[in-house]
Task: structure prediction
Amino acid sequence: MRYMDQAILDDLQHGRIGAIALDTEVFDAKQLNLETGLLKRVAQFVDSEITVLLPDVVASEVEAHLRQAASEAQGKLKRAMRLMEQAQLLSLVDGATPAKQLLERIAEPAAATEVASERLAAWIERSGAVVLHAGEHVTLDQVLLRYFDAKPPFAASGPKKNEFPDAVALLTLEGWAEQQQRKVLVVSNDPDWVRYCATSPGLVVVRDLADALGAFQGETARYACRWVCESLALGGVSRVRDPLNLEAALLYALQMHSERIEFAIEADSQFYFQEDTVEPDFEDVELPDPVKAEELFEAVDYGKGYVVLQVEGTARARVASYFKFQRYYSSDGDYLPMGHGSVVRNEQIRFRALVTLTGDIPARMAVDEVEILTGLHHMELGTIGPDWLGDPDHSDAGDTE
Result:
């Protein structure tokens, strides 16, 4: 395993771990993508000896975050609808009234609540998760005792009230572990959760979901992962580098789903500017050498005729960023449009993907599916300005290499 404590591996091997639980932080870190990516792969525990546990406090937090995400999307939809109405775009569609009514129904506040509840319920059903009710496992006295003694997850100082949900969730999991006489593998990168689990007899913590899923994979899946890693070297086990054409498959997936990579732009300008669009043109993919791949690649799901690996690589892309510029005039309090501008950069972009290999595992495998995981790439563009500044008399128009 990449970053798995040997004691946890021993607990797994000897059947002392009977459940897995995810902190709210894990759902947020995966951008609440319940239907894709690693959160989807939690469904592998259905009908297994491992129970997926979901404290009701965590369930409520996740549903609230889903509702907030839906509300934010509705806000963007409403703004887009106003712009479409101003531009008379709906008038181009035959029978535009039903289309407008549909959009208005989607934008209703009740729709956000409904879709959040339905998405969480569907994930719980797919993963076979057991929702633990705090009242059945923890008392108020237990929570308050830890609060006044400043025991984890409560800190000695600071806004301890924010840690009450953590305390309830962790004590709920602890209660289940005591009742079942089996440990719970907790997935969380929250420092408070990590501190609590460090002294808990029933909870053991893993910071990364891929590592947690990888710990449950059998030797066949791990061997398949090692084979892929070794095949990334000339003269390796296959004598042909990358016999699965994995780099080509990853490049194609990036080109088809470039929206999975988000860009955080930092720039300076003498004008007020708004980011319009960012368009990456992915040109090449490079995977790590076998030694590094052994550290980065992970088998995260395995079944009859398939194995799923999480892989990491670097993509070379030509990224075009487009901006709108304005200048504020205090005399009348208005913004005057100053034109558009663009900056093009050659970027090296780190990314992660889930690769499904099918066939006779691990003897004969082929790439069946590639899912690019949502990622964020930071870009610093320096000083930027409208394109009309790019004549020889203006040296601060920005680098457009």
User: Anything to note?
Assistant: The chain has 13 helices and twelve strands. The two ends are 42 Å apart (CA to CA).
